[in-house]
Amino acid sequence: MTPDIRPLVAGNWKMNGTRASLDQIKAMAEGVKGSLSEKVETLICPPATLLYVATALCDDSPLMIGAQDCHQKQSGAHTGDISAEMIADCFGTHVIVGHSERRTDHAESDVLVRAKTEAAHAAGLVAIVCIGETGEERKGGKALDVLKRQLAESLPDGATAENTVIAYEPVWAIGTGLTPTVSDVEEAHAFMRSELVSRFADAGGGMRILYGGSVKPGNAKELMGVANVDGALIGGASLKADDFLAIYSAYEELTA
Ligand SMILES: O=C[C@H](O)COP(=O)(O)O
């Protein structure tokens, strides 16, 4: 955690979820209604097909709804894509950009991620910008170099603590059940914080830096308690309300 930064517990449903899964969002929306929500923000990013109906379900809940990607342009001939404006039009508040699965499956570069981040900002959305090294890069001692490059090239100059969240997701930890050691997480987050402060000054000091990669109810308290870890970006464990709420509840003790 970082003093004075309100953590964000965010779920990324990836290509999972149909209308039948809306019950889980309903349960999450109810489950986050207590007083902890004043200290910790929550967000679920379902597939785009569920975005509009999911935001309607969260009308009277602090649970926010976001999207998993956006196109860098406002509109036009881009079959299959959705724009940041469309997400805002569905009452989405956030959009994930540069997830490693997008970088790999769709060859997305840092330059493109930066353009998508700018598009998100222009539409009034918070961009959750994902970065992280591969297993090979970590083994080769290059993890921090990769983070430095991705931060420098994926973030636009207009990034602020209000419009941008960083999500550090070591690629080798995603969906594998593996997590970095606490000291590796601490080192990576301290490094990202110093990079952000050196480029964005106070805004960099206030930007949230989430950890993502095999976050579960069983390891949430330990990971979320690390210095400069300002929340989580959760994949598999965000599909079920019980797991998501158990991770969120780790903050009961952390913020006590
Ligand atoms: O966006 C979420 C991450 O890719 C983490 O996924 P995971 O929690 O299933 O490892």
UniProtKB/TrEMBL annotation:
<feature type="active site" description="Electrophile">
    <location>
        <position position="99"/>
    </location>
</feature>
<feature type="binding site">
    <location>
        <position position="175"/>
    </location>
    <ligand>
        <name>substrate</name>
    </ligand>
</feature>
<feature type="active site" description="Proton acceptor">
    <location>
        <position position="169"/>
    </location>
</feature>
<comment type="pathway">
    <text>Carbohydrate metabolism; erythritol degradation.</text>
</comment>
<keyword id="KW-0324">Glycolysis</keyword>
<comment type="subunit">
    <text>Homodimer.</text>
</comment>
<dbReference type="GO" id="GO:0006094">
    <property type="term" value="P:gluconeogenesis"/>
</dbReference>
<dbReference type="InterPro" id="IPR000652">
    <property type="entry name" value="Triosephosphate_isomerase"/>
</dbReference>
<dbReference type="Pfam" id="PF00121">
    <property type="entry name" value="TIM"/>
</dbReference>
<comment type="pathway">
    <text>Carbohydrate biosynthesis; gluconeogenesis.</text>
</comment>
<comment type="similarity">
    <text>Belongs to the triosephosphate isomerase family.</text>
</comment>
<comment type="function">
    <text>Involved in the gluconeogenesis. Catalyzes stereospecifically the conversion of dihydroxyacetone phosphate (DHAP) to D-glyceraldehyde-3-phosphate (G3P).</text>
</comment>
<dbReference type="GO" id="GO:0005829">
    <property type="term" value="C:cytosol"/>
</dbReference>
<dbReference type="InterPro" id="IPR013785">
    <property type="entry name" value="Aldolase_TIM"/>
</dbReference>
<dbReference type="GO" id="GO:0019563">
    <property type="term" value="P:glycerol catabolic process"/>
</dbReference>
<dbReference type="InterPro" id="IPR022896">
    <property type="entry name" value="TrioseP_Isoase_bac/euk"/>
</dbReference>
<dbReference type="InterPro" id="IPR020861">
    <property type="entry name" value="Triosephosphate_isomerase_AS"/>
</dbReference>
<keyword id="KW-0413">Isomerase</keyword>
<keyword id="KW-0963">Cytoplasm</keyword>
<dbReference type="InterPro" id="IPR035990">
    <property type="entry name" value="TIM_sf"/>
</dbReference>
<dbReference type="GO" id="GO:0006096">
    <property type="term" value="P:glycolytic process"/>
</dbReference>
<feature type="binding site">
    <location>
        <position position="214"/>
    </location>
    <ligand>
        <name>substrate</name>
    </ligand>
</feature>
<keyword id="KW-0312">Gluconeogenesis</keyword>
<dbReference type="GO" id="GO:0004807">
    <property type="term" value="F:triose-phosphate isomerase activity"/>
</dbReference>
<feature type="binding site">
    <location>
        <begin position="235"/>
        <end position="236"/>
    </location>
    <ligand>
        <name>substrate</name>
    </ligand>
</feature>
<feature type="binding site">
    <location>
        <begin position="12"/>
        <end position="14"/>
    </location>
    <ligand>
        <name>substrate</name>
    </ligand>
</feature>
<protein>
    <recommendedName>
        <fullName>Triosephosphate isomerase</fullName>
        <ecNumber>5.3.1.1</ecNumber>
    </recommendedName>
</protein>
<dbReference type="GO" id="GO:0046166">
    <property type="term" value="P:glyceraldehyde-3-phosphate biosynthetic process"/>
</dbReference>
